[in-house]
């Protein structure tokens, strides 16, 4: 059997708002299966992103996060910060690999790597 990643799901307090933000960030389309409870951001190049309301989102550091690559890392970081992300750190492995850690409006960590 072969598994493929169909969706990555976020626990959150407000799935409509957070899904709307991510739809803008990844140029996805919204599909509110159960408004206020579960909203899907569909991406043509997959995987989809799901946002489900939970009464008490997990506290502390994310155990899983999304990593993206951008040809122009600085421009993409600026675009996402303009949408409401927060830059939380910058890292590198020498000159070969650099990435910026960001948080979405609900505090979920994700990274942008690039040149």
Automatic annotation (TrEMBL):
It comes from the Bacteria. Gene3D superfamilies: 2,3-Dihydroxybiphenyl 1,2-Dioxygenase, domain 1. Transmembrane segments: none annotated. InterPro entries: Glyas_Bleomycin-R_OHBP_Dase (IPR029068), Glyoxalase_6 (IPR041581). Residues 7-112 form the Glyoxalase-like domain. PANTHER family: CONSERVED PROTEIN, HYPOTHETICAL FUSION PROTEIN. This is Glyoxalase. It comes from Mycolicibacterium mageritense. The lineage of its organism: Bacteria, Bacillati, Actinomycetota, Actinomycetes, Mycobacteriales.
């Amino acid at each position: 059997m072969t598994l493929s990643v169909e969706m990555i799901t976020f626990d959150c307090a407000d799935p409509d708002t957070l899904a709307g933000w991510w739809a803008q960030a990844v140029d996805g389309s919204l599909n509110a299966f159960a408004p206020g409870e579960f909203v899907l951001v569909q991406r043509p190049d997959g995987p989809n992103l799901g946002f489900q309301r939970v009464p008490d989102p997990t506290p502390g550091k994310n155990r899983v996060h999304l990593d993206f690559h951008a040809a122009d890392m600085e421009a993409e970081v600026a675009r996402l910060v303009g949408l409401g992300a927060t830059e939380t750190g910058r890292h590198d492995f020498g000159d070969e690999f650099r990435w910026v850690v960001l948080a979405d409006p609900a505090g979920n960590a994700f990274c942008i790597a690039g040149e």
